[in-house]
């Protein structure tokens, strides 16, 4: 590791550890790492010594996806996603089936309404013809 600086920024330390920079920040706040706050051209930042990282890095009991090779982590991620999505996919299938049944009921109801309207049309036409109404006085006086 010749040519590597002895002090590292949070971003560089995170890259070396294979974790997110916020993880390094949280570890500094928790006292896992000792870091020195310095002023850089981009503002205040923490600098960690390389030896501090090597001697105090916590070991994870469960490897993260970023630490596993990509070819090994993709099948795991797929399986986790599949198992997480399975209940939603099942529910979506049930909702689709129910929607199909409702659509069929609606179409049947629309057919019945059309049929009933066709049956009522002749009665409506008869009812719409103007009835010859005679005034009351003609009924009485003219017979």
Radius of gyration, CA atoms, in whole angstroms: 41 Å
Net shape: rod-shaped
Uncertain spans: none
Overall number of strands: 3
How do the strands line up in the largest sheet?
1-3-2
Count of discrete alpha- or pi-helical segments spanning 4 or more residues:
5
Overall domain count: 2
Distance between the termini: 127 Å
Helix/strand structural class: mainly alpha
Helix content: 55-70%
Question: Quick gist of this model?
Answer:
The chain is built from 5 helices and 3 strands. With 143 residues, it is mainly α.
Polypeptide structure, described:
With 143 residues, this protein is mainly α. The protein is built from five helices and three strands; from the N terminus they run βααββααα. The protein has a three-stranded antiparallel beta sheet.
SSE topology:
Elements: E1 7-9, H1 10-17, H2 21-30, E2 35-40, E3 43-49, H3 50-56, H4 70-128, H5 136-142
Helix pairs in contact: 1-2
Features:
rod-shaped, 3-stranded antiparallel beta sheet, 143 residues, 3 strands, mainly alpha, 5 helices
């Amino acid at each position: 590791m010749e040519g590597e600086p002895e002090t590292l920024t949070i971003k560089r330390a995170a890259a070396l550890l294979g974790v997110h920079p916020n993880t390094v920040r949280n570890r500094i706040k928790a006292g896992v790492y000792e870091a020195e706050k310095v002023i850089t051209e981009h503002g205040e930042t923490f600098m960690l010594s390389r030896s501090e990282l090597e001697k105090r890095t916590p070991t994870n009991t469960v490897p993260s996806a970023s630490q596993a090779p990509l070819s090994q982590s993709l099948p795991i991620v797929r399986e986790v996603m599949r198992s997480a999505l399975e209940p939603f996919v099942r529910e979506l299938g049930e909702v689709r089936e129910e929607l199909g049944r409702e659509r069929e009921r609606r179409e049947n109801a629309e057919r019945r309404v059309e049929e009933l309207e066709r049956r009522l049309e002749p009665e409506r036409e008869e009812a719409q013809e103007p009835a010859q109404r005679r005034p009351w006085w003609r009924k009485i006086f003219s017979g």
